[in-house]
Structure formats: C-alpha cells, structure tokens
Amino acid sequence: MVKCATWACRCCLECCHKFIKFLNKNAFVQVALHSKNFCVSAMNAFLLVLKNSGTFFVSEGIASWFIFLGKVFICIANTGVSFLIVNNWPDLKDKLNSPIPPLICVFVISYVISSVYMALLSIA
Prior knowledge:
Strand content: under 5%
Helix content: over 70%
Oligomer: single chain
Number of strands: 0
Shape: elongated
Number of domains: 2
Structural class: mainly alpha
Distance between the termini: 45 Å
Order of helices and strands: HHHHH
Number of helices: 5
C-alpha cells in the first residue's frame, strides 16, 4: 500500500515538474517579448497556453522532431568530416589501427555539443 502511494505521489510530482518547466520556458519568452516581471509574464504565458493548447501541442511536437533531426544531422556531418580527415591524412592513417574509436568519440562529443546548442535554440 505504501509502495503504491509512493509511486502515485512520485507520478504526480513528475507531472507537476514537467508542467512547471514548460510554463517557466514560456514565461521567460514572455519576459523577453514584453519586458514585464516574471509573475505577470508567467500568468500571461499560462493564459496563452490555455487558450491555444492545441496549437502548442502540435508546435511542440513538430519542434521536438526538428530538434532531434538537427542533432542527428550535426552528429552525422561532424563524423563524416572526421572520417574524411582520418582517411586522407597519411600520418594519422598510419598511426591508427581502426578509425572507428575516434569516430565514435567525435559522434558522442558532437551529440553533447549539439544537444546544448539545440536546447538554447529551442527556447528561441
């Protein structure tokens, strides 16, 4: 019984956290657009989301796909350029047994950097 109540409480808190995070993002956008204080901007953002909930739902879904595609494109492009550099640089090609480990490192680092960049871009 306690485990079930704990799980339900955790679920409610997670839902509340996601809602507050979404509202904060939109409140900061309202602050940037209208130069009002945070509380007024948060209320305006909440009313805007409430009035246009369908539009926000669709636009957030489309934006998340574009952000994902942007991350993948950046990672693949960086890894491809790194592959060309590794294969066409004679000194580097001779020293490496396999180009796969450095390319995996480039892909992971590219993903981390693109995630940070796309997170900033998603707010805009």
